[in-house]
Amino acid sequence: MAGKSGTESKMTDEHKAALAEGRAQGRAVRSYLEALERNKPRRGRRRTPAGIKKRLDAIDVEISEADPLKRVHLIQERMDLLDELDNATTTVDIDELEKQFVLNAAAYSQRKGISYAAWRELGVPATVLRSAGISRAA
C-alpha cells in the first residue's frame, strides 16, 4: 500500500508472526468445535451405516417409479444420507483436537472477547474449559 509520501508500509516480522498465531488458534478452536458438533448426541435411535445403506437401496428402487415431486425429495434424501454415511465412517481424533483447543482457547477467548458462558452454551464441557484456563470469573 502506498502512503501519501509514496513510501510503502511493510508488515513487520512480529506482525506476521502474530497473524500466523491467530490463524493457528482459530484453526484449533474451529476444528474442535466442529468435532463437538458432529459428535453431539441426537434424539432418537442412531442410524447405523448398514441401516443407511439399506435406505439408500430402497430409494434407488422408489425413485424410478416416483413422480417428479417425489423424485426430488428422494434425491435430496439420498444426498443427505450419503453425507451422513460419510460422516459416520470418518473417524476424528477428538482427544488430539481437544488438546489443541486447550492450548489455544484461552488466548483466542481473550483476543476475541468470548466468555465462559458462550463456550458452555455452545457445548464445550466445563472440564475442557477449566483445562484451557477459562473460568467463569473471566
Helix content: 55-70%
Count of individual beta strands: 0
- Count up the helices: 6
The figure for the number of domains is 2
Give, in order, the helices and strands.
HHHHHH
CA radius of gyration: 23 Å
For the record, give the distance between the C-alpha atoms at the N and C termini, rounded to a whole number.
Answer: 39 Å
Brief overview, please?
The chain is an all-alpha fold and 138 residues long.
Structure explained in plain terms:
This protein has 138 residues and is mainly α. The protein has six helices and no strands. It folds into two domains: 71 residues; 49 residues. Helices cover 70% and strands 0% of the residues. Helix 1 packs across helix 4 and helix 2 packs antiparallel against helix 3. It starts with 12 loop residues before the first helix and ends in a 6-residue tail after the last helix.
